[in-house]
Amino acid sequence: MKKFEEKTIKTKNIYDGKVIKLQVDDVTLPNGKTSKRELIKHPGAVAIIAITKDNKIVFVEQYRKPLEKSIVEIPAGKLEKGESPEVTAVRELEEETGYTTRNLEFVTSFYTSPGFADEHMYIYKTSQLEQLENPLEGDDDEFVEILELTLDQAKQYVEEQRIHDAKTNYAVLYLEMLGRK
Amino acid sequence: MKKFEEKTIKTKNIYDGKVIKLQVDDVTLPNGKTSKRELIKHPGAVAIIAITKDNKIVFVEQYRKPLEKSIVEIPAGKLEKGESPEVTAVRELEEETGYTTRNLEFVTSFYTSPGFADEHMYIYKTSQLEQLENPLEGDDDEFVEILELTLDQAKQYVEEQRIHDAKTNYAVLYLEMLGRK
């Protein structure tokens, strides 16, 4: 859909980083006036709702520099260039949790912040986890701790804002809803 | 929680825009090594799940420059400096939909993209809408079209990815779950 399309007059590249790029576009608005749009380009990301044999949900706790605190999230990671989201999902699951899976079910996908960023998040679910015999090393600048929680514990973490991000809040709500089917 | 804290060695301000700021921090990792973190500063945002008297959900369709397409979202907007989220919620509801409310229920809040941004999203719900007699003007660079959909229609829009962002996917799932209580 292109309703109310904003046509680009000029693009200015401000920053090209390790994870994100920033550009500022001059645009023509539907009423003919002009405005500026600040846009973050992001490679996209994948998150996994992973359920253990004893029906616990696998989370990772990690420090998030933008928030200056650590939060508890479902395992997730950025798409590498040319990588399909299913491949990213298994790789991140292996790197962050030591589990692997041969069975991924697509749950949903969404843009996380469509007002200023193009980050697209894919969410998968698996309840067929196998422990890796030789766990992989993750990124050398990532430090995570694994937690396995029941759904009731996870809901409590949401209440306490220890779980406090879009994909993870979504995941907890999704599992809560599945339980009501 | 400060687990695995990354201490800032140096902050470099790259860009200070209308909506977002970009800074790059040099940090010390828990293992003593250093790394760089790219951080977007955002004022925070509010979204409203608004239900009409005939049990329809109020959405707005708007062009999202980062995605180069228009998507259908629940009404939302950025916090003004010093503004409480409840005040933002009512203001954005009035500006974007022509409805107002005296009754807001807090649903949840979450960080949208904790890996690179500090944007914090508050979600409220109201089913006590009143039509404004003199609708307000919104921002002069915002063009939105109002849609009122049943929950089944909204779920169809999610399937078709016309609804395709974190807060709105969350809202549809939340209403689906409420219907099962």
- Give the class of chain A from helix and strand content and strand pairing: alpha+beta
Helix content of chain A: 10-25%
Mass-distribution shape of chain A? elongated
Give the chain pair forming the largest contact, with residue counts: A-B, 76 and 76 residues
Would you mind describing this structure in some detail?
Two copies of one chain form a homodimer. With 181 residues, chain A is α+β, with helices and mostly antiparallel strands. Chain A has two domains: 7-41, no CATH class; 45-180, Nucleoside Triphosphate Pyrophosphohydrolase (Alpha-Beta Complex). The first copy, chain A, is 19% helix and 41% strand. Chain A is built from three helices and twelve strands, in the order βββββββαβββββαα. Chain A has helices at residues 85-97, 151-159, 166-178, and strands spanning 7-16, 21-28, 34-41, 45-50, 57-64, 69-73, 76-78, 99-101, 105-111, 120-126, 129-131, 144-149. In chain A, the strands form four sheets. In chain A, strands 7-4-10-9 form a four-stranded mixed beta sheet. The mean pLDDT of chain A is 96.
